[in-house]
UniProtKB/TrEMBL annotation:
Its main location: mitochondrion. It comes from Columba livia (Rock dove). Keywords: Methyltransferase, Mitochondrion, Transferase, Transit peptide, Ubiquinone. InterPro entries: NDUFAF7 (IPR003788), NDUFAF7_sf (IPR038375), SAM-dependent_MTases_sf (IPR029063). Arginine methyltransferase involved in the assembly or stability of mitochondrial NADH:ubiquinone oxidoreductase complex (complex I). Acts by mediating symmetric dimethylation of 'Arg-118' of NDUFS2 after it assembles into the complex I, stabilizing the early intermediate complex. GO terms for cellular component: mitochondrion. It catalyses: L-arginyl-[protein] + 2 S-adenosyl-L-methionine = N(omega),N(omega)'-dimethyl-L-arginyl-[protein] + 2 S-adenosyl-L-homocysteine + 2 H(+). Its EC number is 2.1.1.320. This is Protein arginine methyltransferase NDUFAF7. PANTHER family: PROTEIN ARGININE METHYLTRANSFERASE NDUFAF7, MITOCHONDRIAL. Coiled coil: none annotated. One of its GO terms (molecular function) is protein-arginine omega-N symmetric methyltransferase activity. GO terms for biological process: methylation; mitochondrial respiratory chain complex I assembly. It comes from the Eukaryota.
Length: 378
């Protein structure tokens, strides 16, 4: 970790007042807010490593209720003096009208303008901290430029193709009506190879069952092109594996496992993200880091240090218990600690300097990327 990056990170966690001088964060803490803080710090760290560009866009894909962006904005406010000469803007890619309303309420207090004439930006506003926010339906509508991209629990919700290896070669897993129970659906294998089988199965594939998300591939290609041209970085946090798992498609309803084919449209359907596929789909345009387990990433980002500061500032037992419970949820390997992984796209020059015949002796080493290398406190 470079000294500048280390100073920002350690100084931030050990600040006695916590988030905001009023100490709001300490009086009603929620470790999920610390999660957002750490991601905000990661982007600031990469901004410093890039030489503090004069402007950056924070682009979140599928921002949910806007909680994560809200936590990151609080970090940016806390570090306002550091960002004083930087033009920061927020760009949210959201297709749901209902969720965009919830996001607008959380981030701006509902003070937004609809933009029906503009085909790309359908809504805009100013955050409670004074930063402009724009809403889009597609990542391709977001302006090019130095940008930090965020996809938290985004890729796992995209549709997948499923394939099964058979004696006759690869077959696609399809959905059909069960002839014995007419109001129920069932999985069947395609009688022959399908176009998807021919396009999405790699010749070197060793697994017998594979899930492929072509839409994720297209989005990653887009992000890699944007980072290659405009600079920046992308951080992906999701359920996932590195090309090792097979059948991960599942449904959740009321926080319980639910048959994916039962009562379509009433459950949350998800499949683990194949990070090896995402890496492949960058097509070498960017460097990649990870996947690394969530507990390792957060530990490297200094969550233990931040937790100690919050516990020291907690005045009641209930608050302390809530902090420890939430920390356990994020870090316990049997809970979210090992289920979630972090994965990053970065420009090649961020990890390795371009080849030069005569390397200057005075050239300083490139700072390690926060979260993906151990945080050493000096």
């Amino acid at each position: 970790m470079s000294r500048k990056n280390l100073t920002v990170i350690t100084g931030y966690y050990t600040r006695r007042g916590g988030i905001g001088e009023s100490g709001d964060f300490v009086t009603s803490p929620e470790i999920s807010q610390v999660f957002g803080e750490l991601i905000g710090i990661w982007y600031i760290s990469e901004w410093i490593a890039a030489g503090k560009p004069k402007a950056f866009q924070l682009v979140e894909m599928g921002p949910g209720r806007g909680t994560l962006t809200d936590d990151i904005l609080r970090v940016f406010k806390q570090l306002a003096s550091l960002l004083s000469k930087c033009d920061v803007s927020i760009h949210l890619v959201e297709v749901s009208p209902k969720l965009s309303e919830i996001q607008a309420q959380m981030l701006t207090g509902g003070k937004v303008q609809s933009n029906p004439e503009d085909k790309s930006v359908y809504m805009k506003g100013i955050s409670k901290t004074g930063i402009p926010i724009f809403w889009y339906r597609d990542i391709q509508d977001v302006p090019l430029g130095y940008s930090f991209y965020l996809a938290h629990e985004f890729f796992d919700a995209l549709p997948i193709h499923k394939f099964q290896r058979t004696d006759k070669g690869w077959r696609e897993v399809l959905v059909d009506i069960d002839p014995e129970v007419p109001d129920q659906l069932r999985f069947v294998l395609s009688p022959s190879s399908t176009p998807a089988t021919q396009n999405f199965i790699q010749p070197e594939e060793t697994r017998d069952h594979v899930e492929v998300c072509p839409e994720a591939g297209v989005i990653i290609q887009n992000l890699a092109c944007r980072i290659e041209k405009g600079g920046g970085a992308a951080l992906v946090a999701d359920y996932g594996h590195d090309g090792t798992k097979t059948d991960t498609f599942r449904g959740f309803r009321n926080h319980k496992l639910h048959d994916v084919l039962s009562a379509p449209g009433t459950a949350d359907l998800t499949a683990d993200v194949d990070f090896s596929y995402l890496r492949k789909m960058t097509q070498g345009r960017t460097a990649t880091l990870g996947p690394i387990k969530q507990r390792e990433f957060l530990k490297n980002m200094g969550i233990d240090l931040r937790l100690q500061v919050l516990l020291q500032n907690s005045r009641d037992t209930a608050t302390r218990e809530q902090l420890l419970h939430s920390y356990d949820m994020l870090m316990n390997p049997k809970k979210m600690g090992d289920c979630f992984s972090f994965f990053a796209l970065l420009p090649h020059h961020r990890l390795a300097r371009p080849d030069k015949k005569h390397k200057p002796e005075s050239e300083s080493p490139l700072p390690p990327v926060a979260g993906f290398s151990e945080l050493l406190l000096k």
